[in-house]
Every structure is written in structure tokens, then in C-alpha cells.
Design brief:
This protein is α/β, with parallel strands linked by helices. The chain has twelve helices and nine strands. Bound molecules: phosphoric acid mono(formamide)ester and norvaline. The site of phosphoric acid mono(formamide)ester has 9 residues, from helix 2.
Length: 311
């Protein structure tokens, strides 16, 4: 059985909590898991899920991932646990560390996630915050690798809101050194700290471009990726953002301006005919449901490397 290399970091709070090598190793491990080339045994290991926001893919894929590893999951609903009552994170984190082996947390503020990591003695995984969605980026780059075999010469264009998903694509993209273009309306650029971190990682600074010029961003792209214009927690801005993002829909007309071999990606859930047309979602170029499936494989790999060496 494969000897798993433990991660240098105990946590996966950000896409750049891992090195380029660790990222490539996780993608390789994910491929072997998907192809059923290895079996991992984490019997009796317990994953705790704390989700302050809704989730279908992340919640279910983590539960199934843990089950396939031989372990179990406890879904800690903040409403029915004392978390919703406002018990301090430092208390919850210390208690859960004595019951569980790893926690996956979906919440609003990255600082709350960091507070969990500070007080926990077990690995903490970012299952989405307002700032980042690093598990999603793992699945996305697995999907891109399946399509193009390598990242060299791949141009990934994200069209839409410079949000958590875009931020993690930028950071993982910087680690892998592929060209990432973000096309968004002015004022909706990705987080400036994230952009600065990415520029520090990129050897060639020209490989990251933030623009409101949609046509320039799409020209020659191999991957067209989008996400909702208004993320969870931004419901109040929805009408305003719908107007500001008008023209940023991935539709057939836009797809025709990209590279002939371009694939279409969306982390889901989608609003059809807002950020992406129904026709494009259902088109042959769409890899959206493979991308969703890959959440399961990368998260098994991630759990395995965080839970430690097993032979
Ligand atoms: N892509 C993603 O994280 O989906 P969920 O919100 O359903 O988990
Ligand atoms: N940006 C979206 C991603 C959902 C998976 C959100 O945060 O709601």
C-alpha cells in the first residue's frame, strides 16, 4: 500500500497552506483513489463537520469520503449543538479535539476558522469561508489535469465575482504556475491580499491577470469557469449585483471566443441564465459534474494526508 506523506501543515485553511509538491501529490493520490488503485484504511477515525452555511456537495462528499476511508462523520449542526448558542470557539475547539480526529468547517470569517485552528489539536479543513474555498480548487485542478494532462500552457479564465472560489483558484494556480485570468466588473476584483500573495508566488508575474475586458480574458482560454454572482451571505446585494454583472454570462457566444478545446467549469450551485446559460451547462464542453464528482476523490486524499501516515 502507498506510503502517504503527511502534510507539513497540520491544517488546510488556505490553498497555500500546502506546497506545490504537496498539491501535486494530493492530485496524484486523488487520481489513484478515483481509479481504485489503492485502498486506505482510517477505521475509527472521526470527521466532525461544522457548517454555518448551507451545503450539498461539500457536506455529502466529505461524509462519503470519510465513509470510503473506513471512518465516520459527525455533522455538528450549529443550531442543535451549543455552537449556535455562541459558545466561544476556543472552548468548542478544545472539546471537539478530544472527540474527533479532524474537523471540516464552513463559516463566514476566515478569522473564525483560524481561531478554530489556534485552539484545536486536530487538523482543521476550510470547507468554504467568505475568503477561500480551497477544497473546491483541489477538485478543479484535478479536473483540469484530467483534461489537459498537465498545467503548462493551460489558460484558466474565471468570469464573474472575485469571490472565495476565485481567490482559491488564483492561489492554487500560482502554486502550479499556470495562467489565470479573472474577468470581473470593476469593483468586484478578488481580494487584494490574495492577489499580492499570488504575485509573490508566481515566477512570471504576467501569468495572473485581473481585467474587466471579457473578450481579452476569454481569447485563447482553455478553461472558462464561473460561480454565482452573489455568494451565500450576500443575498441583500443580489439585485444590485445582477445589474452590475450583466454581460458576464458564460453563453454560447462567449464560449465561441475561447480556444476550440475549451472546457466549462462551475463549482455549483448555479443560477442558470445568470452567470451561465443552460445551453452551456448542458453542452459537451461542460465538465461541471465531473468537477463535482472530483470533490469526493480529492477530499479522500486530503483527509488521508492530514490524518497521517498509514501503510
Ligand atoms: N461547490 C460547493 O461547495 O457546493 P456546496 O455549497 O453544495 O457544498
Ligand atoms: N461563492 C459561492 C460558492 C458556493 C459553493 C458562495 O460562497 O456562496
Amino acid at each position: 500500500m502507498l506510503n502517504l506523506n503527511k502534510l507539513a501543515s497540520n491544517n488546510f485553511l488556505s490553498s497555500i497552506d500546502i506546497t506545490k509538491k504537496e498539491l501535486i501529490d494530493i492530485l496524484e493520490l486523488s487520481k489513484n483513489i478515483k481509479n481504485k488503485k489503492l485502498e486506505l484504511d482510517f477505521k475509527n477515525k472521526v470527521l466532525g463537520l461544522i457548517f454555518d452555511k448551507a451545503s450539498t456537495r461539500t457536506r455529502v462528499s466529505f461524509q462519503v469520503a470519510m465513509s470510503r476511508l473506513g471512518g465516520t462523520t459527525i455533522d455538528l449542526n450549529p443550531i442543535t449543538s451549543q455552537i449556535g448558542r455562541g459558545e466561544p470557539i476556543k472552548d468548542t475547539a478544545r472539546v471537539l479535539s478530544r472527540y474527533c480526529d479532524v474537523l471540516a468547517i464552513r463559516t463566514f470569517n476566515q478569522s473564525d476558522l483560524e481561531e478554530y485552528a489556534k485552539w484545536s489539536t486536530i487538523p482543521i479543513i476550510n470547507a468554504l469561508t467568505d475568503l477561500e474555498h480551497p477544497c473546491q480548487a483541489l477538485a478543479d485542478f484535478m479536473t483540469i489535469k484530467e483534461e489537459f494532462n498537465d498545467f503548462e500552457d493551460v489558460v484558466l479564465t474565471f468570469i464573474g465575482d472575485g469571490n472565495n472560489v476565485a481567490n482559491s483558484l488564483i492561489l492554487s494556480g500560482a502554486l502550479l504556475g499556470l495562467e489565470v485570468r479573472i474577468a470581473c466588473p470593476k469593483g468586484y476584483e478578488p481580494n487584494s491580499l490574495v492577489i499580492n500573495k499570488a504575485y509573490k508566488i508566481y515566477k512570471n508575474k504576467n501569468l495572473l491577470k485581473i481585467t474587466d475586458d471579457l473578450n481579452a480574458a476569454v481569447s485563447g482560454a482553455n478553461v472558462l469557469y464561473t460561480d454565482v454572482w452573489s455568494s451565500m451571505g450576500e443575498e441583500i446585494e443580489k439585485n444590485d449585483k445582477d445589474k452590475k454583472f450583466n454581460g458576464f454570462t458564460i453563453d454560447k457566444n462567449l464560449v465561441n471566443k475561447a480556444n476550440k478545446n475549451a472546457i466549462i467549469m462551475h463549482c455549483l450551485p448555479a443560477y442558470r441564465d445568470k452567470e451561465i446559460s443552460d445551453e452551456v451547462m448542458e453542452s459537451k464542453q461542460s465538465r461541471i459534474f465531473t468537477q463535482s464528482e472530483n470533490r469526493l476523490h480529492v477530499q479522500q486524499a486530503l483527509l488521508a494526508v492530514l490524518l497521517g501516515n498509514k501503510t
